[in-house]
Each structure stands twice: as C-alpha cells, then as structure tokens.
Amino acid sequence: MCTDGVGHLVLGDERIQALMADPRLDLVHQQVVMTLYSLNAQGKLDEYREILPIYLSLAWESCEEILDAIVSVGLLNRTNEGIELTYPVVDDGTGDSCGCHA
C-alpha cells in the first residue's frame, strides 16, 4: 500500500507523531496507521475491512487487535459505521507523490 501521497503530512504532524511513538505501537501498527491515512486520502477508508487482512496476511480478528491498539493510543476512533481517523490530514499538494493517488 503506497503512502507516498500522505506520508509527508502524517510525518509532519506533531500530534500524530507523538501518538505513533507510544511504546504500545510497533512497526506493524505504524504501517497500519499510514495505510489508513492513505485509504482516507483516496476516499476509501470504508474499505479497511477488506484491505487490512490482505495487506497484513492476517485473519480479521488479528487485524481488529491491531486496530484496538491504535484506538487505545488515540489515533483512531470506532464509529457505528466503522472507523475514523482522530486527526485527519488534508492533502496540500506539496508532497512528492508517486502519482498513484491521482
């Protein structure tokens, strides 16, 4: 999953970075966070249930445990419809994107 189009925004947000530095999150959790931001930028966040098990090669139950950890540090909220990012970012057009989000 390419995060090129949103990476600079997520990495440049001090609130997001402080939460991603929480020791409860490992590299897999951080990759999932970046993937969720990428999906959101494409208007496809609602597809996370289909994409995460494929991307992570895990059963859905394991994906839910990862999402629960991300929720616990405050980067993600559960809603009746699914999930939402606590700190959404808006593409400002300044990143060096590979173009896959175009």
Word description of this protein:
The longest helix has 15 residues, at 27-41. A hairpin with a 2-residue loop joins β1 and β2. The chain has helices spanning 4-11, 14-20, 27-41, 48-56, 60-73, and strands at 76-79, 82-85. The mean pLDDT is 87. The two termini are 15 Å apart. The chain is globular and about 35 Å long. It contains five helices and two strands. The chain has a two-stranded antiparallel ribbon. α1 crosses α3 and α3 (27-41) packs across α5. Helix content is 52%, strand content 8%. With 102 residues, it is mainly α.
Please estimate the helix content: 40-55%
Q: Give the C-alpha Rg.
A: 13 Å
Alpha-beta classification:
mainly alpha
Largest beta-sheet characterization: 2 strands, antiparallel
Q: What's the layout of helices and strands?
A:
Layout: H1 4-11, H2 14-20, H3 27-41, H4 48-56, H5 60-73, E1 76-79, E2 82-85
Antiparallel strand pairs: 1-2
